[in-house]
Amino acid sequence: MSTTATLRPVRxxxxxxxxxxxxxxxxxxxxxxxxxxxxRYHHSRRHAIDQVLDGCPGGDLLDVGCGPGMMxxxxxxxxxxxxxxxxxxxxxxxxxxxxxxxGTEVRLSVGDIQEMPFADRQFxxxxxMGVLEYTDAALALHEVARVARPGGLVVTTMLNPKSPYRLFxxxxxxxxxxxxxxxxxxxxxxxxxxxxxxxxxxxxxTPRRLRELLxxxxxxxxxxxxxxxxxxxxxxxxxxxxxxRSWRAHPETTIARGAKxxxxxxxxxxxxxx
Length: 274
Known about the structure:
With about 270 residues, the chain is of the alpha/beta class. It is about 45% helix and about 20% strand.
């Protein structure tokens, strides 16, 4: 058995337990608020997606991996009547959160992006935000292509593994916190006061690799937008956010299509179903 096949159940369990409980779901939703790095990331990503959707008149829209429905609520508030929205997530707790946030205005479904409970060619727009990192991206994109109508818009997002922020976060910051936590455990520091970093199961792809997978799935990439553009790295970014709050009023300063794309902690690719 290959190493990849051996590790897959472990990764799937890591992903499953992260948002299986209502308290964890509420924490994820709360991360969208405030002024910290996570809030900036989500705010910037939403602005980038809004720009892509500006050219879309409406239709049947699927938000797969919808989480607690923050984007669903945003679309209801800003594009009411334009889209007939379906929200899908593999976590029942997440879908319950969407129901509480959006009521009966959207169709709700519990399902895995790798095997969605929808008919072929059902949607004019498919959003896959913050979900491909947690799954087999190739399988997921083939499913996305299956449920999208010919000519339909597909918007995928991905953490940028080559950005300075992610390189430092994953290569230095999180390992340092885990090491510190182990030392604190050894000297008897109470669990509630220890440092650490949970394992997430994230596998991030470069834009080049994601474009390749989109093509293979029958999706034609059209545009790449980097978001949450920043030169800071953790934990210094938290200090920066305390005094630099312009990003909420001017989210356009947090995205890039040109030379600064490499500074984006995440990126999206807009594609069309062939």
